[in-house]
Amino acid sequence: MGIMDFRVHEFYELKGETRCGICCCSCTWFVLFILFVCSFQQVDRLNAGLLRNGLTGEVNLESSYDPGRYLVGFWNEFLQFPTTLNTIEFADEAVEAGVQKLGKLRSRDKDGKQIWLDVSVQYKIKKEQLPDIYRDMTKLYEDVYISELRGALQRITNDFTIDEAWRDYASVQIRMHNICKEVLAPRYADCWGLQLWGIRLQAEYENQLVRTQVRKQAEQTAVARQVQTEYRQKTEVLLAEYVANVTVIEQKGQADRQRIERDAVSTARSALVTAQGDVYKLVRDLVMINATDSQAEQVMTGSQLAQYQRILMLKGKASSNFEFMH
Fold first, then answer.
1. Which pTM value belongs to this model?
2. CATH annotation of 86-201
3. Membrane-crossing residues (predicted)?
C-alpha cells in the first residue's frame, strides 16, 4: 500500500517519527527542484555574457556566451554586455535613455580660440573579445572610451582652425572619425560613426567669423556673377554668329533653288522646242502633197507645215471658239 492509499485519519495516526521523515523527504526534493531551476541562467537578447561565480566573485575569462539559457549552476551568474550600437554624446542637450550626459566637448583650435563642440559617437564592442574587455576594463569600459575619446578629439581640434570646419566640414568630420577608430580599435571596439553637429565660439570671435564668412561669400557671389556675365556675353556672340550663318546659308539655299528651278525650266523648254522641231522635220519629210494627178509628189512647204501645225493644235482641244469669215 502506497502513501496515496492512506486516508487522512490514517495518516494522522502514524507515529511522529514517520511523519517527520516524510516531511523532510518532501522538503528535500522541493529544495533540490528549486536549486535545479535556479541553475539555469539566461543571457538576454542582443547581449553577450561572461560567467561569474556568485560565491567567490571570480569571472571565467576563457569564453563568452551568446544569448540563450544555460545550465551553469545556481551559484553562477552572467555578467551581460550589450552587443548593439551604443552612443557616447558630448552635448548639453537632453540625451536618450541609457546614454550618459557628458556636456559639450571643450577645446581650442589651431589659433588658440576656445571652442565648444557637439559630438556624437556610435560604437560597438567586439563580443569575441569580451574576456579581454573585462580583463582590461571590467564593466567600466565605456568610461574608459569616454576618457580616451575626449582627449583624442581635443587634440585633433588643435590641428585645424575653426573656420576650416565652416569651409570644409566633411573633411574635418572624416578626420575626427578616423581618430575615433584609432582610439577604440586597440580597446576591442569599432567606431561605427561620428557626427560633428555643433560648433560654438566665444561671442566676439563668432561674430567676427560670421562677418568674415559673409564678406567672403559676397565676394564669391560677385565673382560668380562676373563669370556668368562673361559666359553669357560669349554665348550671345556665338549665337549671333550662328544666326548670321543660318541666314547666309538659307539665302544661298534659296538662290541655289531658284537657279536650279530656272535651269530646269530652261532645259525643259529647250528640249521641248528641240523635240517639236524634230517632229515637224519628220512630218515635213514624210508627208507628201499631190498637187494634181499629173504632178509628182512634193515635200511640204513652210506655210503648209504651219497650217498642219495649227490643225493639230485645234484637234487637241475639246472645244474652241471660231469666227468664220467669208
1. 0.57
2. 3.30.479.30
3. 20-37
